[in-house]
Amino acid sequence: MNFSDLGNDLYTGKKSIPVVAKRKSFYLVSIVLMAIAIAGLGVNKLNLGLEFSGGSEFRVTSESIPSDYEFVARDALGASDDSQGVRVSKLGNNTVRVQTERLDDTESARVATELAKTFKVSTKEVSSTFIGPSWGDSVTKQALRALVIFLVLVAAVLSIYFRNWKMALAALLALAHDLIITVGIYSFTGFEVSPATMIGFLTVLGYSIYDTVVVFDKVRENTNEAFANGRLTFGQAANLAVNQTFVRSINTTVIGILPILSVLVVGGIFLGPGTLLDLALVLFIGILIGAYSSIFLATPLLVSLRSKDGAVVDLDKRAARSQAKRAKEVAVLAPTSSGNAVIEDFPGASGDESLASTTAPMAQDEESATVTGRQVHKYAQSGPRNQPKRPSKSRRK
Question: 344-353: per-residue pLDDT in tens?
Fold first, then answer.
């Protein structure tokens, strides 16, 4: 079976992934991932870039960068290999970036001169930049403010669009899940948190909420139909929606991941640390986590949040009665190839048991019961019940 056939079977309900039924397992997976991410934040902490922490930055451009450029740069500054105040990285093929703590003008000029001598270039090939801590604090506050505004707008729009605040809450919980795991995994890599990284985080949240809204839109369509006809429980209708959008979510994720993966590989091999690589890494991690939460977390959370609602409880009871009735109409006394009748009973409202079947032998002689259970006399004719013969016209006269 190819992927398109699987998608068609999932959409029609011929096959089903029990996302809602197995939601506790997915909750456990998410909890474990978040615990690992939080532990990573506690142990490694975020490697805040110069824009957030403040400091001085020097860039040396040379046609021949030695392979031990990091050791050479640290030696020029008189910094040891384990010095936390100095960070050395390579940008592209011919630029070395050196970041230090905040230096005054005199010290900056001395460091630039030493770097020029060490890398055998003129002082014009060494650029220096100073970023004060106040500017870094301003960037941090603006980024956090943008995040809060984004979450508030998302909650308001979802509540208005879906007319249900629990849908908005489920979406926000999934977003928090994505943000925590993305930031935690990012901390394990040791990459710098730059303004490009913050843009990546907001982009990831936007992608995640977009995918969740698509799934929730189908959930709303299916559950509204279920409330109208009472054929499916709320959980069954929601699970069908997840299955119907499953292939679409996978395809969208793959299409979004492929170019980002290309940028990540090319940037990691040829360009080195920089804005492009920071952004690509955040998007790569976030899109994968966002796809997981949209499929396996957001809708199960919605079902759990609404499981005690009066309307949902009433729907589940109606659906159980409807399914019991349909099961009896279809399965009772279904003939088999062996000449027996199969009588199937609906297991009950819970739906946790499989249909039980019993067999009843067909009539083997003239006195036996029919499949309807009624006794028929051996001289009885088929068709309408025997009626007394009406007297002929001659006898009525």
Answer: 433 333 333 3
